[in-house]
Amino acid sequence: MSNLSLFQTCPPGLGGTNCSQATCQSPYTAPASRTTKPDSDQQCTTCDQGFTGLNCNVCQGQGSCQAARTRFDPTFVPSSQAAALGFNQSLTCYPQPEVITQSYTDCEVHSPLISNFYPGNFRLSLTRVVDAVNISATGQPSWPATNASTLSSVWLDGVEQFYCQSLGCTGANQTAPAVAGSTAQWGTYNWTCATLECYCIPGTQLCGSGSIISSLLPDIKGPLSLPCDYTDPSNGDATGSCAFKADILQNFLGPDGLALQNCRSGACLVQDTLDQHWANDVLAGGKGGSASSDSSQLTGGVIAGLAVLGLVILGLLGLVGLGLRARRRAALKPRPPPTGPVGLRWKDLSYTLAPPTPAEKAASVLAFNELRQRRRGHGTTPSSAPFGLGSSNSQKAEDTDMFHMDDVNSNTAGNPQYHSSAPPSHSSSTVLLQSVSGYAAPGKMVAILGASGAGKTTLLDLLAGRAKAGYQGGSVSYLYSHHTPLETLSQASASSSSKLIAYVDQEDQLPPLATVREALEFAATLSNPENALASHERTQLVNRTLDVLGLTHVANRRIGDSQRRGISGGEKRRVSIGLALVARPRILILDEPLSGLDSYSADRVVEALRKLAITTNNSGRPSSSSNSDEGATVIMTLHQPSSLIFETFDDIILLAPGGKTVYHGTPADALGWCERNGEPCPAGHNVADHLLVVSQRFKGNLAGGHVQYQSYAQQQQQAQQQQQQQQHGDQSSQHQYQIGNGSNSSHSHGGFGGNAGTSFNEKGISARSSISEHIAATATVIPHHQQQSRLDQDDGDADAVETTYKSVLRSRRGRGGREAASGQAPTTFFTQVLAVSGRFWRHALRDPAGPMAHLAVTVGVGLIVGGCFWQVSLSIGGFQNRFGSILFSFIYLAFLAMSATTNMGSHRALMIRERANGLYTPFAWLLSFVVYDLLLLRVLSSIVLSLITYFMIGLNTSSPRFFFEYALVSILFTVDMALYNMVLASGIEDLSSAVLTAGANILFQLGFAGFLLNVHSIPGVLRWLQWIAALKYAMEAVGSNELKGLRIVDNLGGVPVNAPASLIAPTLFGFEPFYYRDVLVLALPFLLGFFGILTFIVHQKMRELR
């Protein structure tokens, strides 16, 4: 029995009990109504008008299908609305062998070999299907066809003998003719199938008992090739040649297989389907295809791109989950123990703006390599190092690019020697500091005085670990109270050393739209680890800071700036101090905190700072009223303090021009020091002002590394002072400074106020015994006997006693280098993103002028564009206007994205300051800023513009997805342009240059978008630039949707024009209809690429470098 009987409905043209008889009329007649052809007739004689072939399946004539469709369904009328939108629903007959949706072919079999055995009229009928769904679109009765399939029936004298079925079929054009010897003037269409199965119909002449064909058919297997020559399109009665080629047939019948002649093909198609197929065929270079190529087809490359995009999204979600987990784990960690205030000691600090000479650079690198090899071999620093300095708790030297001037090498004699930290020797060098040594005891309030250019700010920068562009050297170490347990010191150093120091810059950089309380809460959240403070404790800390600084009355007032009214200058200065205080630092360093303040405001600031310094009693213990986890050592620079403020400090450090320490002692001893050096202070004169005058009379001999005083009277006073020291011994408490040639004599060092028995020279402390004596006399630090015992312990204990601040000093050459360790954020990344994002969005609500301006301008431009291009026609001019309106919209979005340059520029200074203060990492800030800027200013504006222009212009509304695809392209293009402009703003500090570059990029995009300049006409040496123009991909992606079904209907000089727009656009603009490819290019290489570049530049360029 024939397998065709399994069909619930026989294929068109077949009927009878087993679907083995030919039926007549046409495919538009219901199968049950089609009459069966008598077996005596070689073909049907009752075909409907316009149909032919053995079973009346082949249409003939352009209007045959439309007429048959009307007869089949008299109510069918093509939609005028669809026609107005460019969709032609009328039916047409396509008389070529090419298969678009389905096709019928009727041929005569020309095989002399078969005719010799079986004389008669052999015919072959073909039913080829690409898309079975589209068959019903033509109005034909449905049947259970399979996509990409072929049904072949062989007839002898009008009776079906056998049939073959094939699957996995596809078609393409070729140049070789179907049959050898044929001309194939119009080309050949080759239909190939992956499988082939043939079946006999029992009782027929060819498949009767003992027939050769019946034994041969089971061996006919795939693949199958069915080439057919195109016929003359101007001749409706033209026929062509085909061939039925399978391996076994070619073996028996020759290379042409079963040759077919006088073939007629015909398929009823919707005119719009045919037009779209022609357009895609042209865009594909005339290669043809088994189906119309869809611009949104998911090719292998597109699928791979979507897979990558999906992985990126999954990765982002995974990172969010990891961030939440890390934040939770950080909050559950045990709190670090309190340490109380911490002091600082610095030795031989030097700084010059000139880079080192090649010889010095080679020596530094060699010394660093020796140090690294020694640490790798031994793991710790020898306990014989001066001050008991060991390796850093937080970071190993070999993990950084630092050259530590505090590390030591032991020579053969066992004497420790410091690495040379001398500045470059060439005369063009600008030396700001040279061999400056000093200390600030824990809980003390120290002022650094000096004239302009004396190096005060440079010294603070080095002590605070700020990134410097010049060459620097020396050592800085922490000083802890000897009453603090070793375990507490060790744990505190490991857990919270990054926030031991807080730095207040001379210039205020504050968020203008935040209130005072919000600014302090923001800093408190990001300055303390998640496990350090609970929410209520953080609120108490902020309230206490407001009270100490006298800011309670302005706590809920916005800070303001030059354009927005806010708090006063003195209050801003105190807010800057408060931002540092909420970090609970152990050392507070301030650069000119009183600059620009009136006397009252200055007194308020100093009074607040005085409360922070913990007063110590004679035993060196903090007072009982002090909290061991509060208070700080305060170090600040002053320019011209009042007498009252001058007397407030515990210690004064005086710097002379050239970066040399002239005096280090108490304010009360300053007058005596001036008198002993021949410069008595006039009665009633401000001592601080007089010290500045005295410092000007010291000048540094930079080559020799010493400071010489130019007063003869001072020389006489020095001799008297030496005699007094010999008489009084350890009872002397005068703070003196060594002058002269720097020989290791009995001159006492006024810079430290040491005893007469303590000897110092210009290179620092000379002996370990003098260190403990000096510390015991002046500060609450470890005395010698405790220090020595602890130094004999492990290296971790030694670091806890007096920890070297290795992360402060590093050799920097040029404007590169890494982040200072003090810039490391103590909180997790997720906490940083939440805090920074919250501030961005809160500020947007308080100052909606920017977002509202973007929306208002976007609405205005959208209405103007929509009005100018209102419901564009389908003429040639309307086609040009259609793409012109799209280009105009995209160009506006490009200009809209330029505001990202100024937006990032306005946040640059605050970001650099807060990054230097260690509040957050650069990527946390960047991610928060990008999401805020893109969502609020770019994405929203793109959606609004798309909603207005798309429907006013009258773009493709045949499917809702076209609008969403258009909006997606608009968003991606705007985001790409905004990210590019952010790259410019982050890499170019001059905003005018960044804006100029952004404008030049828009001209570049406009030139290579394909609308104003055909990319195919560009010289080959420049044509590649089109691939880096985001606007080209945006226009191409939107154009691929607009070309679907769009027909140009016009009249040129009396000649009617009715052609698919997809035939003209590729030649006119150079567009290719690959929507998904263009979207992926906009999303992956451009969006992710620009974001990656932006991340790198922000990390490298948007940093503080002094």
UniProtKB/TrEMBL annotation:
On whether Nucleotide-binding is a keyword of this UniProt record, the answer is yes
Location in the cell reads:
Membrane
Where is the region Disordered?
Answer: 375-429, 714-761
Give the membrane topology, semicolon-separated if more than one. Answer: Multi-pass membrane protein
Q: Which UniProt keyword terms apply here?
A: ATP-binding, Membrane, Nucleotide-binding, Transmembrane, Transmembrane helix, Transport
| Skewed-composition ranges (Polar residues) | 380-395, 408-418
Q: Where are the transmembrane segments?
A: 302-324, 852-872, 884-902, 923-951, 963-983, 995-1015, 1079-1098
Please give an example of a GO cellular component term from this record: membrane
Pfam annotation, one family: ABC2_membrane_7
Which ranges are annotated Low complexity under compositional bias?
419-429, 714-749
Q: Which GO terms describe its molecular function?
A: ABC-type transporter activity; ATP binding; ATP hydrolysis activity
Bias (Basic and acidic residues) occurs at 396-407
Domain annotation ABC transporter: ranges: 403-683
PANTHER family according to UniProt: ABC TRANSPORTER G FAMILY MEMBER 28
Protein name (record): ABC transporter domain-containing protein
Q: Specify the species.
A: Tilletia horrida
